[in-house]
Specification:
With 367 residues, the chain is α/β, with parallel strands linked by helices. It folds into 2 domains: 3-122 and 324-342, 2-Layer Sandwich (Nucleotidyltransferase, domain 5); 141-320, Nucleotidyltransferase, domain 5, CATH 3.30.420. It is built from 12 helices and 11 strands. The two termini are 31 Å apart.
Length: 367
């Protein structure tokens, strides 16, 4: 048995969790900064790192307290080393190093993208002896990581054995949700805002592009974002070229609501286009590589339409975490850390943050 403390500060959630055997969530505490960044329409990096400094110690103490454990019974400490915002990552890394040194616990650096995958291994702590725990996902399996910063389609042959089949060539799916939500004046974060608006909309009202739909496994969503912008300009009576003011709205603060626009239909049509591309490519890859299960991971994995379409259009089982484990949390870091701990991975004090870290992959010809 292992008991791992995980720390996560890659972006704007300060999180700590205790996980048993890489599967049972003993405690999980997340301090979100959504309200802090909402007025900016996105994460303000320096503000995020300062808030992490304020939250990291109380959050860690809460996680240990709720788990009713102290440092002496832990087996290791797992901390996110990247990718993410450098200032945010440093807060978690520095606390992790200090705590590991003070308690003589092994220190394990965890790739944030790997951690998202391991959210699919997590289950709530059993309330009674004998409670059944769902079986581990069986290899080989296919993983779709969809978040604000990443869209990756990964073949997973075993623990720490990855082959990336495709990735985004520009905007990630979650980034596209955020930008289009700001463009439509729906607020931040964009994923939940788009989904809520889309519930009453017609997904066939606008025929938005599905870039690279049947071409390999890479993704592209920048053209879709521009197509939404063109429709907005049309309804506003603007020119066919994006105005400087409107372009700023895509990457800056939230625009005021545009009441003349068919917001529900725009949101629904946009969401349908993103989901169609994600499902089509995942379905083809699942058949080509003959996997037994598909895992969804990352914040966009909580999207209801994506889950429903994956389950209805794929011929293999689809597995995804509850919404609370799709967004950034430390339980997934602790889970990934458990399997690294079993494999004998340990990190020295020279471990540093890597903001541009990508998921470790085998060469295309391997395996």
């Amino acid at each position: 048995m292992s008991l791992i403390l995980g720390l996560e500060t890659s972006c704007d959630e300060t999180a700590a969790a205790v996980v048993e055997d890489g599967r049972r969530v003993v405690s999980s505490v997340v301090a979100s900064q959504v309200d802090l960044h909402r007025e900016y329409g996105g994460v303000f990096p320096e503000m995020a790192s300062r808030q992490h400094v304020l939250d990291i110690v109380p959050v860690t103490e809460q996680a240990l307290g709720r788990a009713q454990v102290d440092w002496a019974v832990l087996d290791a400490l797992a901390v996110t080393s990247g990718p993410g915002l450098v200032g945010s990552l440093l807060v978690g890394m520095n606390l992790g190093k200090a705590a590991a040194w003070a308690t003589s616990l092994p220190l394990i650096g965890v790739n944030h993208l790997e951690a998202h995958l391991y959210a699919n291994w997590l289950v709530p702590r059993a309330g009674h002896p004998g409670d059944q725990v769902p079986a581990d996902p069986r290899f080989p399996l296919l993983c779709l990581i969809v978040s604000g910063g990443h869209t990756d389609l990964v073949l997973m042959k075993g623990h720490s054995e990855y082959r990336r089949l495709g990735q985004t060539l520009d905007d990630a799916a979650g980034e596209a949700f955020d930008k289009v939500a700001r463009l439509l004046g729906l607020g931040y974060p964009g994923g939940p805002a788009i989904q809520a608006a889309a519930d009453s909309g017609n997904p066939k009202r606008f025929d938005f592009p599905r870039a690279l739909l049947r071409q390999g496994y890479d993704f592209s969503f920048s053209g879709l974002k521009t197509a939404v912008l063109r429709v907005v300009q049309k309804y506003e009576g603007g020119s066919s070229r994006p105005s400087r003011q409107r372009s700023r709205m895509i990457t800056s603060r939230a625009a005021p609501p545009l009441r003349r626009l068919p917001l529900a239909d725009l949101a629904s049509s946009f969401q349908a286009a993103v989901v169609d591309v994600l499902v089509e490519k995942t379905s083809r890859a699942a058949m080509e590589y003959q996997v037994g299960v598909v895992l969804l991971a990352g914040g966009v994995a909580s999207n209801t339409l994506l889950r429903r379409e994956m389950e209805s259009r794929l011929t293999v089982p689809v597995r995804y975490p509850p919404p609370s484990l799709c967004t950034d949390n430390a339980a997934m870091v602790a889970s990934a850390g458990h399997f690294k701990y079993l494999a004998g991975e340990r990190h020295e004090w020279s471990l540093d943050v890597q903001p541009g870290l990508s998921i470790p992959v085998q060469a295309q010809g391997d395996g």
